């Protein structure tokens, strides 16, 4: 292996180690999960979210910082969307390529220049980046993209009302309760049960023994809402 190849391999190993360290640090944080439908509504310059490699980032401060510049246009074009194809999944860094003319390894940004992507040498304009690029900066992280969204029905036994909501498979019942508060501000005054069993609010639906029926429904070409598990809410008589 020549010296150049050795250097590239060494840099790749450093990038992978850096990415894994960033990911490990984020996983230690108590951050929520979001469905793609929740991310897509944040699609304006005043409220700009993107997701990539399983992580959701709020880039609104970055949009404000680069307002009116050419570099921010690709991010605004993808606001509310997933941009994982911009990044190398092994390193978490911007995808690179070998420039066909100079033979130099450079960032590949066919959608246009983006913030913190440096011009690569040999150019007289090249300067080292003096801060962490936004795709590695945990400041922008607001949560994770769910691996699987699922549908549940929530029935209020006292009021005899029922709603159907989409949740993340990683959501605990506490998180689902928080989602339900917009529909029932007194949801904390109820005991949550499934098929007569009291549910552990600190566990997910799956951990509470409520399997996701969607994979089996799709396997036999039935719609996702053909069968929806129902959570029963029983009033505790502690309404304040």
TrEMBL record:
Pfam families xrefs: Cyt-b5 (PF00173)
Keywords from UniProt, A to Z, are: Cell projection, Cytoplasm, Cytoskeleton, Heme, Iron, Metal-binding
Task: Indicate where this protein resides in the cell.
Answer: Cytoplasm, Cytoskeleton, Cilium axoneme
GO CC terms for this protein?
A: axoneme
- Domain Cytochrome b5 heme-binding as annotated: residue spans: 31-96
Q: Name one GO molecular function term.
A: metal ion binding
Q: Indicate whether Cell membrane appears among the record's keywords.
A: no
Task: Name the PANTHER family for this protein.
Answer: CYTOCHROME B5 DOMAIN-CONTAINING PROTEIN 1 (PTHR21281:SF0)
Q: What family is this protein classified in?
A: Belongs to the cytochrome b5 family.
Role noted for this protein:
Radial spoke stalk protein that binds heme under oxidizing conditions. Required for the coordinated beating of multiple cilia maybe by functioning in a redox signaling pathway.
Q: What is this protein called?
A: Cytochrome b5 domain-containing protein 1
Q: Organism classification, top ranks?
A: Eukaryota, Metazoa, Ecdysozoa, Arthropoda, Hexapoda
């Amino acid at each position: 292996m020549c010296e150049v190849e050795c250097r590239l391999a060494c840099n790749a190993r450093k990038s992978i180690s850096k990415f894994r360290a960033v990911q490990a640090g984020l996983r230690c944080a108590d951050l929520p999960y979001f469905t793609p439908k929740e991310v897509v509504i944040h699609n304006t310059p005043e409220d700009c979210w993107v997701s990539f490699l399983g992580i959701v980032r709020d880039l609104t401060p970055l949009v404000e910082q680069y307002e009116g510049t050419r570099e921010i246009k690709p991010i605004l074009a993808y606001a509310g969307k997933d941009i994982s194809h911009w990044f190398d999944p092994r390193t978490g860094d911007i995808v690179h390529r070998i420039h066909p003319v100079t033979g130099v390894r450079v960032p590949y940004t066919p959608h246009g220049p983006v913030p913190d992507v440096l011009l690569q040498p040999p150019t007289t304009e090249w300067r080292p980046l003096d801060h962490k690029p936004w795709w590695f900066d945990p400041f922008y992280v607001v949560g994770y993209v769910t691996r699987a969204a699922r549908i549940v029905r929530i029935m209020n036994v006292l009021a005899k009302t029922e709603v159907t909501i989409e949740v993340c498979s990683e959501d605990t019942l506490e998180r689902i309760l928080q989602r339900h508060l917009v529909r029932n501000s007194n949801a904390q005054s109820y005991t949550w049960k499934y098929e007569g069993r009291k549910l552990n609010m600190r566990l997910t639906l799956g951990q509470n023994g409520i399997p996701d029926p969607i994979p089996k429904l799709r396997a036999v070409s039935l719609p996702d809402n053909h069968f929806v598990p129902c959570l029963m809410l029983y009033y505790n008589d502690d309404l304040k």
